[in-house]
């Protein structure tokens, strides 16, 4: 194998700066999968999208390890990729802590092509329309050189020894990489070898080292990767712990300490952080001791026999028969452990409390979870045993009181708990996105979408659904995979309102020329 020298790679990348990533990369995916205007093609049965692009746009090509999230996107400078600002401004290769978003379902770029009538189909099955070629040739300028893309595609793996011209390298790409004889007609005016052919560069006999590629093409990324790092474990631990100044936690702790309440309910619509809060508070109160905190989730199949006490089959080896024995179940066992260790607090988290029939699951125990009835003995109806619930056992439950498909939270149930209402919170979302360094434009659009949804959904739409947003691809994926199906259900009998909101959101997610491209975000 022979190799392009670094100066050749740099010159080609400099010319690619003017070419839209939003168009070059998806069009290359279409061309590689032999997508034309005649027939629908299932790309998942050909070269595919994400995995295909990973071959050419992964940091693994030069030995860069993936990030803690498993991402390893590495691309040359392209129009729409933020290579001229941020921590790595000026580097020829940009590494980003995001996935490739090359597939038809996730990518907002492909979706916009579909909305513009340039492609047809959904997910992996697609074809071009007659309008595609004209727009493709507008977006990819006439002075684009396919040779520049070829250099990137072969930059680090090398060129076969027998190749001595650009047309021969094109043949290698088509026949050996893509298993094609030629690209289909809609691409040929841009994905072609220049005529007359450009001079073939002098190639290297030996491949530069990965370190050399990084130092020469991405010096700032190289400095970042080789700098001492704060332990991921310590950083993760600090992010996952709840602070003593957290208002909900400090309020709950105060109520526990003065004996006002020992059972708490975090109530609110989905996505408001109820489950996360409950876990974090439980871990903090129990000092991260797994023996002193337990996490359960109620569902319709849970009963008193599963939760308090009940009969269980037991095989006896003596006579080979099955006998039924009365035994304590999860709640009484946990309560007994707490009773034996009065100096420490024990915490039971019950997620989705009202998805089970709470009165039937708790039975007579429901009365004795109140703080005023702790340590007071009562009789269990099955065993006849007299027990009490210790005051060092804390209950934290979560529930969506607006879910009409589950058991209502009646007054008798609610008065056993100290209730904290968890509402969608724009301030929490905005602060989180800004703290994570999300691009200002992405932040604004995320908040705008959050606001739209909280005007449409009767009980609001939770902020936690958006906490993972880092770029517009993430926001688009959340819209497609989470929000849109829920919106259809909510506005099932109001089609006009659904169409109006859908149009507003699609407009909000539309790509603009000054933003990061369809398969990436800001520098990572």
TrEMBL record:
Pfam families, per the entry: AAA_5
Annotated GO MF terms: ATP binding; ATP hydrolysis activity
Name of the protein: 5-methylcytosine-specific restriction enzyme B
Gene3D superfamilies for the chain: P-loop containing nucleotide triphosphate hydrolases (3.40.50.300)
Native species: Kosakonia oryziphila
Annotated ranges, domain ATPase dynein-related AAA: 264-417
